[in-house]
Amino acid sequence: MKRTSAIILMALLQSFFLSLGGKAAAENDESRSFNGKYEREHLNHIAFPIGGIGAGMFCLEGTGAISHVSLKHHPDVMNEPYAFAAIYVKGVEHGAKVLEGQVPTWKLFGPDQSGLGRGDKTYGLPRFEEASFLVRFPFATVELKDKDVPLTASITGWSPFIPTDADNSSLPSGALEYQFTNTSGKPIEAIFSYNAKNFVDGQGRILNTQGGFVLGEHEGNSGLAIYVDNNNAVVDHCWFRGGWFDSQTIVWDNIRYGKMVSNQPVDTPSPGASVYVPITLLPGETKTVKVNFCWYFPKSDLSIGLVRKTGNAFVGNPSKGTATGQQTVSGYAGKQLLNSFDAGGDGLMGIIQSPSFKIEKRYLKFLVGGGNQTDRTSVNLIIDGEIVKKAAGTQSETLNEIVWDLKSYKGKNAVVRVVDLDVYPWGAYIG
Prior knowledge:
The longest helix is centred in the N-terminal third of the chain and has 18 residues, at 11-28. This protein has two helices and 27 strands. It has helices at residues 11-28, 246-256; strands at residues 38-39, 47-50, 57-61, 66-70, 83-89, 96-98, 130-136, 139-145, 151-158, 173-182, 188-197, 206-209, 212-216, 223-228, 234-236, 272-281, 286-296, 309-311, 338-339, 350-353, 357-358, 363-370, 377-383, 386-391, 396-405, 413-420, 428-430. The strands form five sheets. Strands 1-7-8-9-10-17-14-13-12 form a nine-stranded antiparallel β-sheet, with no helix packed on it. Strands 18, 20, 21, 23, 24 and 26 form a six-stranded antiparallel β-sheet that branches. A five-stranded antiparallel β-sheet has the order 6-5-11-16-15, covered by helices on one side. By secondary structure, the chain is mostly beta strands.
């Protein structure tokens, strides 16, 4: 299966995410002042929610990265898409950097698909050496420094928050303001860019909006707009199309060589999009580029009672086997199976579950293939609202037999839920 995203943002999330960072800080270094800046290891587990009340959210992490993107009416904690801001400084040897601090070590070791090179993440790109994080609700600010770059950078993230104005405080939007100061004695020519795969829907189109682009779904008019307030902006609506990580490689080459690529929207799915803003800074001068995020996802599967299916995967009749464009699927029993690749490819994502049933037999046997991410592509047995059993594939199109011993659950009511919350390769197939 694939991926999904979403959330209802509540004030409690503010204290939850911030307390994670505060707790880590207190445990690791008692010298950090209360309510002060977060630095070094204290940046590893902290994130600031951005988005209108009840409208969904994304988070600005302590390093400046974007994560926890939850826009479609349910929480998608730990959803870190391929999206990043970058700066290029002309004439500086190592003047191209992702506008983030160093990646926390816990993200680098042991994650799923590491053996495939992690082409779904930006971790291998150069970043600023130093970062600090300060929160003063409704603002969070990341400060960035690097000896290779003759400027300092800061990121200020904020939500639409107006005390006593519930309507405007509930808008599905947020902003990141990137501020640059020339610390050298010479004028600087630079290019700012914001770059993103279509993490909303891998099979959706990328559309045009003034000063940026819209990551759209393949059905309807819903999507996420990312744009800047700058008349000099140049937009690339369609990254280079290639296999493996070719798209990401070409995008980074454009950034590090100072190329502002302009491509118009296409009528088919695009690998990703970028918006470029040229900047000239005199010695000591400061300029700001504001990146706006605004989303519209009216379709919701939230309901009172049992929800049998959500998302775009598993639509229509069961699959009859290998889908168009898919490697050969084998090992399944019978003539039909659940296949979240069919029809639409890796970009499809969704959840489907059985009606409630009483456990009367000791064993439950089934076949599963595809991705091995138990948190995103898996089969789950749920009893009393809790997942008690999980199974996933082995990064293969061949389905393998799984047998669950249900002796300890006899007599209880349960449901089987099949989950695919990943738009990247290796979903799941159930036979």
